[in-house]
Amino acid sequence: MPLGTLDRNPPPMFRQGYSALTKVVFFSALALFLMVADTRFKVVVPLRSAIATLLQPVERTLAVPLEMWRGGGDYLRGLNHALAGEDAAKRQLALQAERAARGDQLAAENARLRALLDLRPALTVKSVSAEVLYEAPDPYSRKVFLDRGSMNGVVLGAPVINDAGVLGQVTRIYPFSAEVSLLTDKDAAIPVLNTRTQQRSAAFGTSLGGGMELRFMATNADVQPGDLLTTSGVDGIYPAGIPVARIASVDRKAESGFARILLTPMAKPDAVRHVLVLEPVGLQMPKRPEAEPAPEPSRKASAARKASAPASGGRR
Predict the structure, then answer these.
(1) Nearest Cα to 167, choosing from 208, 196, 122, 127?
(2) Does the model's pTM come out above 0.70?
(3) Using CA atoms, how far apart are residues 288 and 61, in angstroms rounded to an integer?
(4) pLDDT tens for residues 91-106?
């Protein structure tokens, strides 16, 4: 083979081009230029948008198996949760039906007993639904404002409750709004009844932590943490039997004549939106008949007394 016909070019792997340092400097400068151009002049934004538009179908296609896996798991979990919720709702419905039947039976029995004993029927508590507008901006008191006032039938001193229990009492009234002092206010007080011992007492609001306390209870009083306190109904304002608070702690000190009993209100004022304003029990009580005025003495009797007065005085 003649030497002239041989390929004297080196193989590709042995070819010598630009040095590695030159390539590094060039591509570093190019990268820096592109970063500056993208930051300052936004020249790469159309290119990035075009690439993202082209790759979006690919990304969606690749994400389909993962979404199907997640969706299938969520469907199975949701199905199991729905079946469990349905079973719980059926059990709760059966329990409520039993309670409703028992309540109707007790109400009928109560009506028969009252008729037998010739007692007046139980009072029907009138109520007005209201919504809490805002809390009074007073750091030294706990008051809220309602969107119902005297024009809606709200009266001064009306009890305010929610689904958990007693919330407070109307202490100031306006035509279209009312101010309610919460039970946790430092000036609030309410008569309560211990459902376990049937002992009456009074609960007061405190300025510490938004709680309540029982005052003037002896150190040997039969109170325990967890006892439920309800309205006693003897004040003529609150209907009897509405939950008020639960005893949280009892501190019995030998050197003190009274125990320190802290309470946890049943109604949480910070999480209340809708309430019921009740009519005070005293306004629903039948009024006492007025005493008839005594008949005036006749003129003849008064004249006889005047005539006999000097004669009796002379005989003495």
Answers:
(1) 127
(2) no
(3) 84
(4) 888 888 888 888 888 8
Residues 6+ apart with CB under 8 A from 223: 194, 197, 199, 214, 217, 247, 250, 259, 261
- What amino acid occupies position 238? Y
pLDDT at 167 over 80: yes
Query: Coil, strand or helix: which one is 45?
Result: helix
**Which CA distances in Å does 260 have to 86, 126, 215, 232, 252?**
46, 36, 7, 21, 7
- Buried b / exposed e across 52-69, counting CB within 10 Å, b at 16+? eeeeeeeeeeeeeeeeee
Does 313 have pLDDT greater than 50? no
* Sign of the dihedral through C-alpha 36, 38, 43, 48: positive
Maximum average pLDDT range among 114-123, 253-262, 269-278:
269-278
Is 187's pLDDT higher than 80?
A: yes
The pair of structure tokens assigned to 289 is 């008949």
Does residue 211 contact residue 265 with C-beta atoms inside 8 Å?
yes
What CATH number does the domain located at 127-284 have? 2.40.10.340
* Residue 86, both tokens: 């349905």
Max CA separation in the chain (angstroms):
187
Mention every residue, 6+ apart, whose C-beta is less than 8 A from residue 77.
Answer: none
Burial of residue 13, with CB atoms counted within 10 A of its CB: 0-12 exposed, 13-18 middle, 19 or more buried: exposed
The lowest-confidence range among 44-53, 150-159, 262-271 is 44-53
Mean predicted confidence (pLDDT) in 179-199: 91
Structure confidence at residue 64 (pLDDT): 84
pLDDT at 314 over 50: no
Domains of the chain, by residue range, sit at 22-122, 127-284
The strand ranges marked E within the chain are 127-135, 143-146, 159-161, 166-173, 178-182, 189-194, 200-205, 212-214, 228-231, 243-251, 260-265, 274-278
Query: How many helices (H) and strands (E) would you count in the chain?
Result: 4, 12
Return the ∠ at Cα 144 (arms to 140 and 149), rounded to 5°.
135
